[in-house]
């Protein structure tokens, strides 16, 4: 498999994982807001609303849940937090907007495990 084929396959697997996670949140009554929202410093995979709370979801896919969570670096966490702050800066309530940062893990079988408020300060 060429590098281009591998990259395309990885990209498609990531999209499939994000769709699976989005379906789970939607089944639980969350309101979809954005997919792959890009700010100056990074990207948020999925954004939902849970009542007044904005929920930022980082999706990590790997062979196991443990490997997926280990792939989240401190640098990436910093970018996610910074990008979330930029996102709410565009909302009417700005920094007064209640937020939550979840991490959704997807294993090789497609099972989803959500770690709510995983990036709380």
From TrEMBL:
InterPro entries: Restrct_endonuc-II-like (IPR011335), tRNA_endonuc-like_dom_sf (IPR011856), UPF0102_YraN-like (IPR003509). Pfam families: UPF0102. Transmembrane segments: none annotated. It comes from the Bacteria. Coiled coil: none annotated. Belongs to the UPF0102 family. PANTHER family: UPF0102 PROTEIN YRAN. This is UPF0102 protein VK792_15080. It comes from Mesobacterium hydrothermale. The lineage of its organism: Bacteria, Pseudomonadati, Pseudomonadota, Alphaproteobacteria, Rhodobacterales.
């Amino acid at each position: 498999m060429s590098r281009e084929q591998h990259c395309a396959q990885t990209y498609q697997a990531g999209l499939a994982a994000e769709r699976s996670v989005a379906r789970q949140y939607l089944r639980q009554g969350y309101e979809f807001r954005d997919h792959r929202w890009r700010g100056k410093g990074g990207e948020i995979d999925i954004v939902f609303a849970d009542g007044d709370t904005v929920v930022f979801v980082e999706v990590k896919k790997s062979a196991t849940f443990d490997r997926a969570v280990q792939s989240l670096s401190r640098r990436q966490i910093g970018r996610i937090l910074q990008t979330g702050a930029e996102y709410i800066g565009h909302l009417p309530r700005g920094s007064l907007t209640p937020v939550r940062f979840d991490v959704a893990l997807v294993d090789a079988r497609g099972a989803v495990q959500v770690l709510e408020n995983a990036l709380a300060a």
